[in-house]
């Protein structure tokens, strides 16, 4: 086994183990941290495939997103103190059935699909090559859609929040 | 895309000498020590106490007992405390120690930023895990501060990368042989310094560990935990100052002296300014200043990005 394969399997095992930990730990802070560990391992696996930019970007985004998620999860908890043990699973039977079904579907797809054989060598910039392969001629549309989604999010927040909680009487911008 | 793209392995940067990691650790340790000494000097300390002070403090914390709080989440506290220096050192591996960094990643700028945001987790975990009021407030303060400053910070980093046409930190430094980026993109440089101070919770932006909440995140830390946290804090500040050199101040370029010495001199200068600013500027209330960050810093950094983009085109 090459060093790359050893690293892949180590990261894969840690990623799955951390994923299991998300549902077995009894605190929202620990669960979110476990989810972060799992996703960072996925980012590191992307680095192994030579997708340097995508891998580092996944790590950057996941560190930030999981932080924001931890804040929101704690906020919505029935026990906001969060240090009291809490149950992380509900409707066990149904959840197990759905999870097993989805796993069989995805794993079956991975085994049944005819995997392509590599033609040519590694491109100079694998991230660019992947983007062209996935998006192809739709790149412009996707870029416009991305900006439109961002504008929609900003507009929604602006419309929903008439005054921010940061506003205080006496602030120059605050309305009377 | 051509049928047979050229074989250029992207993951094999030129080998750096094996001693460079040790040089990096040594340099960061000396910078952090120097920052602590200068901080003590500006606070009214006297020679030679300011130089030996950090070492004596470290020795004292090493033998001091840990403070116990009620029902702490110990693994999370340990993870948070250790993540702080680890993130600082990992961020520094892409910074050139002269001409070559320890790890010359092709996306070094993104890596640097990814390691910086790990500090959010470090502080939040520490503040959360000890199960005490003031550290908890400090942890949440830092998350809010990080969210407020990440976007201008990111735009400042990207502006430097755009000016050089590369995300590789050594190439950004090399692109400034003619003119420093700090000279022709001063807004990005200023935004970088402000946001880097915020990301390193230093000076006016040190409210997450502020005295108004009894030390904030570090209020309950004592013994080795305290030592590792404080060391990580100064390391992070040193790394934030060191990153300004290849990104905006021309890296190791300079007359007469070798590149490593120029890098060291410029880093010390930036670090001294940041430490000095702590003693000259008042603390900033984050809920007020978040507005400045979003309504002023983000638009001006976007304008700077536009200007640089037009010039590069």
What does this molecule look like?
The complex is a heterodimer of chains A (176) and B (313). By secondary structure, chain A is mainly α. Chain A has 2 domains: 86 residues; 38 residues. Helix content of chain A is 69%, strand content 0%. Chain A contains 6 helices and no strands. Helix content of chain B is 67%, strand content 0%. Chain B has one domain. With 313 residues, chain B is an all-alpha fold. Chain B contains 11 helices and no strands. Chains A and B meet through α2, α3 and α5 of A and α3, α4, α5 and α11 of B.
Strand content of chain A: under 5%
What is the 3D form of chain A? globular
Structural class of chain A: mainly alpha
Radius of gyration of chain B: 20 Å
Oligomer: heterodimer
Series of secondary-structure elements of chain A, N-terminal to C-terminal: HHHHHH
- Amount of helix of chain A: 55-70%
Shape of chain B: globular
Overall residue-averaged pLDDT value of chain B? 84
- Name the average pLDDT of chain A: 82
Could you say which structural class the secondary elements and strand pairing of chain B correspond to? mainly alpha
> Unreliable runs of chain B, pLDDT <50, ≥5 residues?
1-12
Largest interface: A-B, 32 and 41 residues
Q: How many structural units, i.e. domains of chain A?
A: 2
Helices and strands of chain B, in order, run as HHHHHHHHHHH
- The counted number of beta strands of chain A is 0
For the largest beta-sheet of chain B, the strand count, sense and barrel status come to:
none
């Amino acid at each position: 086994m090459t060093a790359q394969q050893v690293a892949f399997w180590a990261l894969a095992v840690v990623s799955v183990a951390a994923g299991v930990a998300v549902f077995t730990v009894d605190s929202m802070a620990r669960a979110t941290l476990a989810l972060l560990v799992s996703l960072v391992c996925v980012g590191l696996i992307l680095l192994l495939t030579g997708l340097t930019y995508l891998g580092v970007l996944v790590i950057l985004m996941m560190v930030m997103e999981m932080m924001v998620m931890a804040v929101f999860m704690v906020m919505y908890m029935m026990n906001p103190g969060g240090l009291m043990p809490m149950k992380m699973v509900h409707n066990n039977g149904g959840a197990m059935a759905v999870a097993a079904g989805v796993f069989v579907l995805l794993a079956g797809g991975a085994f049944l699909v005819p995997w392509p054989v590599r033609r040519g060598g590694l491109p100079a910039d694998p991230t660019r090559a992947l983007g062209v392969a996935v998006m192809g001629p739709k790149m412009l549309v996707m870029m416009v859609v991305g900006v439109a989604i961002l504008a929609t999010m900003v507009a929604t927040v602006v419309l929903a929040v008439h005054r921010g909680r940061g506003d205080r009487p006496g602030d120059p911008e605050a309305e009377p | 895309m051509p049928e047979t793209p050229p074989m250029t392995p992207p993951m094999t940067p030129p080998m750096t000498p094996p001693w460079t990691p040790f040089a990096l650790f040594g340099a960061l340790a000396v910078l952090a020590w120097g920052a602590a000494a200068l901080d003590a000097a500006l606070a009214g300390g006297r020679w030679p106490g300011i130089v030996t002070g950090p070492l004596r403090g470290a020795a004292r914390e090493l033998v001091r007992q840990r403070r116990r709080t009620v029902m702490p989440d110990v693994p999370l506290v340990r993870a948070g405390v250790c993540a702080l220096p680890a993130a600082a050192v990992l961020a520094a591996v892409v910074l050139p120690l002269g001409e070559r960094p320890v790890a010359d990643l092709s996306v070094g700028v993104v890596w640097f930023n990814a390691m910086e945001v790990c500090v959010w987790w470090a502080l939040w975990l520490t503040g959360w895990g000890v199960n005490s009021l003031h550290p908890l407030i400090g942890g949440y303060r830092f998350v809010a501060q990080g969210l407020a400053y990440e976007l201008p910070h990111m735009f400042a980093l990207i502006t430097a990368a755009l000016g050089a046409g590369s995300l590789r930190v050594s190439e950004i430094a090399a692109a400034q042989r003619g003119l420093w980026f700090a000279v022709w993109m001063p807004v990005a440089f200023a935004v970088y310094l402000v946001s880097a101070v915020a990301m390193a919770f230093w000076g006016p932006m040190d409210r997450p560990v502020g005295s108004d909440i009894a030390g904030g995140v570090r209020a309950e830390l004592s013994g080795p935990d305290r030592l590792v946290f404080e060391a990580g804090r100064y390391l992070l500040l040193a790394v934030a100052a060191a990153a300004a050199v290849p990104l905006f101040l021309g890296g190791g370029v300079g007359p007469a002296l070798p590149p490593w010495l120029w890098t060291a001199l410029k880093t010390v200068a930036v670090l001294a300014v940041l430490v000095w600013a702590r003693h000259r500027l008042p603390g900033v209330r984050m809920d007020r200043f978040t507005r400045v960050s979003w309504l002023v810093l983000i638009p001006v950094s976007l304008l700077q990005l536009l200007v640089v983009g037009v010039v590069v085109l």
